[in-house]
Write a structure and sequence with these properties.
about 20% strand, globular, 7 helices, 4-stranded parallel β-sheet, single chain, 3-stranded antiparallel β-sheet, alpha/beta
Length: about 210
């Protein structure tokens, strides 16, 4: 999604809290090159440089160098800096649960997530930017899980109902990784749409 926005001329602030900036950079470069560069053992250095420049040279992709939980106020300040200082049009935060994973204990997680979601929503209104927030899902009831293509729903959002309540649009992605016919086919389902009210399956990605 971030690569698509980059291709359309948007400036992106990318906050991935479960991967290093090196891994994120390789992932963006792999999408541009249409090959998994981390699996290429004898990659020509000149080619690697050309791909890197095509992604980063025009200064429209900013990667946040941090791993794991982060103090919410620090996160909010980083987002504000990315939008105001670096003129980012869109912030991608992956993912909401890890923001507070090392900061809470006992029953404080939901309250903290509610606070973070409310503050993020107010930041979007203040900064007039787009924020794409990744949320993990609770395991559905039954024998099959989401990795086997089980349909997503709003009540499966992990941590707090504030994620669904405060978001303008909620998109669920479903893919049966064990399918013999289409293991790489992702169903994109709109679970909430504050703009038009239209929900349901909207596309398929492969």
């Amino acid at each position: 999604i971030a690569s698509y926005f980059l291709s359309k001329g948007e400036t992106i602030g990318y906050i991935a809290l479960e991967e290093s900036v090196r891994q994120a950079a390789i992932d963006f470069m792999s999408i541009t090159a249409n090959k998994m560069l981390h699996l290429e053992k004898d990659l020509d250095e000149k080619y690697r440089r050309e791909v890197w420049e095509s992604v980063f040279l025009d200064n429209r992709l900013y990667l946040y160098d941090h791993w794991g939980s982060v103090e919410p106020e620090n996160l909010f300040n980083k987002i504000r800096y990315l939008v105001k200082g670096m003129e980012c049009d869109c912030i991608i935060l992956d993912h909401i649960s890890i923001v507070i994973s090392g900061l809470t204990s006992g029953g404080d997680e939901r309250r903290m997530l509610d606070f973070v979601m409310t503050k993020l929503r107010s930041l979007v209104e203040e900064l007039q930017c787009a924020l794409i927030l990744v949320s993990h899902l609770r395991r559905p009831s039954g024998d099959r899980g989401h990795e086997e293509g089980v349909q997503t729903s709003l009540n499966q959002l992990r941590g707090t109902h504030g994620i669904a309540q405060l978001s303008d649009i909620v998109v669920g992605c479903e893919r049966n990784q064990q399918s013999e016919d289409a293991p790489n086919l992702t169903t994109v389902r709109i679970l909430k749409n504050r703009w038009t009210g239209e929900t349901g399956i909207c596309n398929f990605l492969s």
